[in-house]
Amino acid sequence: MAARVQGGDVSVFVAQRSANLTGVARAPVRASRERAPTSEWMGATGRGWFLSFHCYTQFMRLAFFRGAGLKPMPPGTSKLPNVRYLDVREGDELDLAQLASWFDQAARLPGWNSP
């Protein structure tokens, strides 16, 4: 199922998808020198954090902390070998079934324990 991204659609999808995953917690991150106030983390109870998303002026970046273990891997690379990114811009075609699959897979992998 593909959908054209409109303003705010990705964050709504993330909220809906996280509500459907058992034991998933969302943690808004307060502004600090290290992190923008437009960041949020998702984690699975007992397994650590598996996803963060950051809203920038032109796009939203979803960072899968163990993204190299997802099938298929999200397209964006990182300096860190396990991290993979998905950058979403308004007007992009987004495969919601693939995104949901990545969320499900990521929630089952060991996460990162220190946001």
Summarize the structure in words.
A hairpin with a 4-residue loop joins strand 4 (48-55) and strand 5. The chain has a 5-stranded antiparallel beta sheet, with helices on one face. A two-stranded antiparallel ribbon has the order 1-7. With 115 residues, the chain is an alpha+beta fold. The longest helix is centred in the last third of the chain and has 13 residues, at 96-108. The termini are far apart. The chain has helices spanning 9-20, 96-108, and strands spanning 2-4, 24-28, 39-44, 48-55, 60-64, 84-88, 93-95. It is built from 2 helices and 7 strands. The protein is globular, with a radius of gyration of 13 Å. It has one domain.
Distinctive features:
five-stranded antiparallel β-sheet, 115 residues, two-stranded antiparallel ribbon, alpha+beta
